[in-house]
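Work Package 4 report. The design task specified in the project plan requires that, given a folded chain encoded as structure tokens, an amino acid be chosen for each position. We show below one input record used in the internal validation round.
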């Protein structure tokens, strides 16, 4: 019960601090104003040099808040990055139906559907790029008819979006064949999530499953694909299951080193613990276009692996990494002191701890701790 109360407290607090803005954007393509809801991360105003991935949410009227809640909760625990969310509201005059107008023969956007496609890809994205600080990683999400529609961005020679969240999609003509063909032809990395449920609309399920079967045959490492079929869920409740699953799929590489990752992947290595850390953050930058300092807790995890496996020489490389990420702090000197201490060079260890004392504190490393370590070694 306490956990549920705490979750609700965190959820409400995060939503209170996130900025939620409603704007009207005039679309020359549609020749009308369209309402959008923008969610800016809590750090947007306080971190003027930081750029953020963007998530375009179709059916923003009812999907915006669930996405914002999941992202804010994940960001609170540093499991998910902060993301700018744009909800495209489609509840006026049956807009979601006319926005997604499809030619039943060709299976392609037609009439207003084509105009809406260009509004999202050209006008809305252009508007956001000019007004807000965006990182290159772009996501689009939708539900049933809008989930089917968002797949048309995959048909372009160079897809605009990097990641697609297609929840119970109502697939236009031949889409279950066209998407696998596009995946086989594409060279750029694509993240793709699709879901259904045992209580989903039956006429849509067979084609969703057919698409899933074809996508599972594709083994290209550039295609990151996940499919969920939820038990005991309906066409509508599957959304609340899908959102966190999709986000954690896309951003799995972003997450800090967990206990499981440490035990199963790091501590069992014969060597190369620092290289593992470097590669983890290099993959994050390459795959998601997110560049960030290495977390202090991740430094501590690698430190623990070095100590456990007595690979003390790797402290030197870890110290170099600390200098690059936290040059004004005591972290680098501390890592060097650990190397000297563990290899028996106590004089150099004392000097390194004393040098660390003169730098800024970081994490659980304090000036008192550095002095205590130096005094302890002096008395040995």
């Amino acid at each position: 019960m306490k956990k549920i109360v705490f979750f609700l407290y965190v959820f409400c607090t995060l939503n209170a601090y996130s900025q939620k803005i409603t704007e009207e954007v005039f679309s020359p393509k549609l020749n009308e104003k369209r309402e959008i809801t923008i969610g800016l991360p809590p750090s947007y105003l306080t971190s003027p040099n930081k750029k953020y991935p963007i998530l375009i949410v179709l059916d923003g009227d009812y999907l915006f808040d669930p996405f914002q809640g999941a992202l804010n909760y994940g960001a609170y625990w540093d499991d998910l990055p902060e993301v700018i969310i744009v909800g495209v509201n489609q509840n006026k005059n049956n807009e979601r139906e006319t926005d997604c107008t499809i030619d039943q023969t060709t299976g392609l956007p037609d009439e207003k559907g084509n105009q809406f496609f260009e509004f999202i890809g050209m006008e809305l994205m252009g508007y956001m790029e000019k007004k807000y600080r965006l990182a290159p990683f772009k996501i689009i999400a939708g539900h049933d008819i809008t989930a089917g529609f968002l797949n048309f961005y995959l048909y372009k020679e160079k897809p605009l979006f990097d990641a697609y969240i297609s929840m119970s999609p109502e697939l236009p003509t031949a889409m279950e064949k066209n998407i696998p063909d596009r995946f086989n032809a594409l060279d750029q990395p694509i993240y793709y999530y699709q879901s259904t449920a045992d209580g989903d609309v039956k006429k849509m399920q067979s084609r969703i499953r057919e698409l899933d079967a074809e996508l599972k045959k594709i083994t290209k490492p550039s295609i990151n694909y996940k499919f969920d079929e939820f038990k005991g869920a309906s066409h509508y409740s599957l959304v609340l299951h899908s959102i966190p699953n999709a986000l954690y799929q896309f951003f799995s590489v972003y997450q800090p080193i967990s206990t499981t990752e440490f035990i199963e992947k790091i501590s069992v290595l014969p060597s190369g613990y620092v290289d593992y850390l470097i590669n983890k953050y290099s993959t994050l930058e390459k795959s998601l276009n997110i560049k960030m300092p290495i977390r202090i807790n991740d430094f501590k995890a690698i430190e623990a692996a070095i100590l456990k496996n007595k690979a003390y020489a790797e402290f030197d490389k870890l110290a170099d990494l600390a200098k690059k990420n936290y040059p004004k702090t005591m972290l680098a000197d501390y890592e060097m002191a650990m190397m000297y201490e563990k290899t028996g060079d106590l004089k150099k260890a004392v000097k390194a701890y004393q040098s660390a004392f003169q730098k800024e504190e970081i994490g659980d490393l304090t000036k008192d701790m550095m002095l205590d370590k130096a005094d302890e070694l002096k008395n040995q």
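The radius of gyration is 25 Å. Validation will be extended to a larger panel in the next phase.
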